[in-house]
Amino acid sequence: MKTVTLLILSAAVARAQPARLGRLGAAAGGSLHVVSGESYDPYDANDRMGLGRLEASFQVMRVGPGEVVVQAAYLHGEQSDTLFGEMETNLVLQAANAGVRYRWPLDLGPVSLAPLLRADLGAYWASLRLRSSGQELRDRDAARGLEALGGVEVLIHPTKLRGLTGRFAYGGVLEAGYAWIGEFHHRLRSDVPEDTERLRRFGADPGPLDLSGPIVRFAAILRY
Amino acid sequence: MTPRVALLAVTCTSCGGRPEILEQPLSVGVAQALDRDLAFLDQTRERLVLVDPGSPPRVRHLETGHRPATLLPTIDRRGVIVLSRGLESTDPDFADQEPRLTNFDAETGDAAVYPLTSPFDRVTLSEDGRYALAFFGEEPAEEGLFRNPNEVALIDLEVGPDDENPAVRTIRAFGQAPKGAVFSPPLCIPAKGCAETRTLAVVLASGSLTFLDATHPGRREITVQLQIPGAQAIEPEEVVFAPEQGTVFVRAADLDDIFVIALLASTPEGEDGNDYHPALSQLAAGRGPSDIDHYDEGGARKVLAVNTASRDVSIIDAATSTFVNIPVGDSVDRALLFPPDAPTAALLFARGNAVSRIYFLDLMGLEDERGRNLTHVDLGSTAADVQLVDGGTRALVLHDEGRTVVSVVDLGARTVFPLQGNLALTSYDFAEGGRYLVAVADGLDRIGVVDLTTLHPSEVRLDRVPVRVLALPGSGAVVVEHGSLWGELTVLPSPRSTRDEAFVVEGFLLEGIAEGGLRGVPVEQP
Predict the structure, then answer these.
(1) Which of the ends of chain A has fewer CB neighbours closer than 10 A, N or C?
(2) Does B514 contact A at CB distance below 8 Å?
(3) Closest chain A residue to B53 measured between Cα atoms?
């Protein structure tokens, strides 16, 4: 706790340190979506959905005291629960998004601290599956979404620890914000194998699924 | 605030969990066939689910009152009656709600709500569909401190609810809760003529019958005590009306006598007095009557009683109470009179016992011809049930043993056509006014169709094994229910449809499940 306080105090007085452009970054982490809409209730008793996230980023320009970074990411999450005591539900959410963030690095020697703001636009796919007594209904739908987050990034520069200069850094990021995700419209039907002759089927419309809500995100970062 | 608390505060924003109703087992009653829709009562989510199995299908979820208990199609099958037990809410988000009877119009979705004073769980309708009688079944009360098992509510469904509709009565019972209730057809009180008919509700209870005048609901009920010296408590089982004679015949369990109740004109006493009174008499025509019915011969009303113990049939003149007995020779227990609108003959059979014959009894001139009017046909195997089909020109015999699963009886020629199969039928219905028999068997993924005019059988293969089959008279569709938790139906647009024309409607009980508005409040049961 003392370390964190010290870092924050140091950052407040530190001089903004313009970084070199063209640095590449990679991040792996997770995010927790809080989905408070009632459309999510049938598929999860707890209003929360965890997603894994992989991201690649690239510094493109310097603006004012900070820098602009573009990024692309892939997200994957799965939530299983039981509905009406005996019906298994499974919701898989995948997303591919790309966006931009503005980060303001504060040089604290071998450690840099960077408050950041980011926005990502993306495509989301929600696969819904319900199982009961060996039967299964399923469907997949896509929607667009926008995420807006703010947070802080902490990077450690190992070369600076040895008094040298270098591009490599590692660290972590903690962000919070909100995801606006368009409604998914599923039509639940039995999964019929292609080589099987089956009667024409009319599925069920469970109603629009809205997964919008607050997000908390954390990730480990490598930067070069 | 520590970081951990801050993180929890963010992640738990609005995390209120989900309605408890989604954790409870989905309790949905069996389908009821309406004119064009199938009706399901979803007791968990307190909804009436109507499925019009067209292409594409139309699914509607209509809210019932809290804790719906009973669903009954209306007489014309264009709607349903739902009894709800109401709610004494322990949740401040839900207001208390009184028990109610809701009359749903299946075509429009409109509902007429009649508040009730008690959470009744049984309802019966008059044959013209105008009146409903709500009452308690014999099951003991599950909740509450007191329950009056003999309270009933009489509702005029053609009039909206008001202070006098429903009319609530407590019948004078001499035993337990009612065993059942029936409505009469419009009856005449003979001395008053048939210019003004009335519909009576008759409540059957152990040792008594209670008459309520549905046409004049403000009038007092009349209770008739059924007693025979030395006999045990009398349990009325079947009521047959002779409407033009103003006579009611009552058969009781384990009793040889048949009660005859004549409704005689009288002067009303007070504003709520009745203009008739019942006169009770008994007929002892045979032993162990198990079925009664009535017909007219030359303007005289006759009552037919099937006497299982004495293996004969009694024909009773309703006006004079004289009777003749026709020995049958087998312990038949049921009679079907045909043609249905003006019977001239009776088909006698036994359900489920070792009798593999059916008997034909010509009803005209029986007093003179007696046993000469009785003929029989051998079926080859016993009958589980027999029904008149095709406007009463044929009878369908369902067997419960052997390879013959169904026999079709030509009631004119009095000949039998057996149809063989490998499995006993578990569910069947008649489509297109009785022209087609549609049936399914347990474990077999097929629906069988028999054209009863040609007796040509055909089959359609299904994707899954069936549970029930229902025919919808309005659309002509034949619907197979598969018993899935989320609802699954296979629809044949007509009984002549091939597999190429059939389609499946699945998941309709989940329709709109993500749209919220979920009803159903967990109630603390005592």
Answers:
(1) N
(2) yes
(3) A202
Q: What residues of A are in contact with residue B46 (Cβ under 8 Å)?
A: none
Q: Which residues in chain B are closer than 8 Å to A87, comparing Cβ atoms? A: 26, 485-486
Quick check: is B342 in a domain? yes
Q: Positive or negative CA dihedral for B138, B143, B149, B154?
A: negative
Whether residue A47 and residue B516 make contact (CB cut-off 8 A), yes or no, is no
- CB contact residues (below 8 A), chain B span 18-47, against chain A: 18-19, 22-26, 44
A37: how many CB neighbours lie within 10 A of its CB?
A: 17
Which chain B residues touch A79 with a CB distance below 8 Å?
none
b/e map B416-438, b = 16+ CB within 10 Å: bebbebeebbebbbbbbebbbbb
Q: What is the mean pLDDT of residues A187-200?
A: 84
Q: Name the residue with higher pLDDT: A178 or B87.
A: A178
pLDDT for position B142? 67
Across chain B, mean pLDDT equals 86
Return the closest-CA partner of residue B491 out of B75, B174, B52, B83: B52
Predicted structure pTM score: 0.85
Specify the CATH number for the domain of residue B339: 2.130.10.10
User: Between these two residues, B405 and A70, which has the higher pLDDT value?
Assistant: A70
**Stretch among B17-21, B30-34, B425-429 having the lowest mean pLDDT:** B17-21
Integer Cα distance of A141 and A128 in angstroms: 9
Domain A2-186+207-223, CATH number (from 3.90.226.10, 3.30.420.270, 2.40.160.20, 2.30.110.10): 2.40.160.20
Interface contact flag, B506 A190, Cβ < 8 Å: yes
User: Which A residues in the span 137-156 are in contact with B, Cβ-Cβ below 8 Å?
Assistant: 137
- pLDDT category at A20 given cuts 50, 70, 90 is low
B293-323, pLDDT tens digit by residue? 989 888 888 889 999 888 999 998 877 778 8
Chain A residues close to B26, C-beta within 8 Å: 84-85, 87
Length of chain A as a residue count:
224
Residues B58-111: tens digit of each pLDDT: 999 998 988 899 999 999 999 999 999 887 766 776 777 889 999 999 999 999
- The ranges assigned to domains in chain A are 2-186+207-223
Q: Strand pairing partners for B342?
A: none
- Is A34 in contact with B462 (Cβ distance < 8 A)? no
**pLDDT tens-digit readout, B404-438:** 688 889 998 999 988 887 777 889 999 998 889 99
Give residue B143's pLDDT band: very low, low, confident or very high (50, 70, 90).
low
Query: Is B344 within the bounds of a domain?
Result: yes
Domain that holds residue B336: 287-421
| pLDDT over 70 (residue A69) | yes
Exposed, middle or buried: residue B46 (CB in 10 Å: 0-12, 13-18, 19+)? Answer: buried
Residues of chain A positioned with their CB less than 8 A from the CB of B11: 32, 34, 48, 214, 216
Distances (CA, A) of B459 to A111, B389, B441, B448, B493: 78, 20, 12, 5, 14
* Residue B108 in contact with partner chain A when CB distance is under 8 A: no
In a domain, B393, yes or no: yes
> What would you report as the CA-atom Rg of chain B, rounded to the nearest whole angstrom?
26
- Chain B hits for A188, CB-CB cut-off 8 Å, are 506-507, 510
Q: Which two tokens stand for residue B489?
A: 């139906």
Q: Is A183 within 8 Å of chain B by CB?
A: no
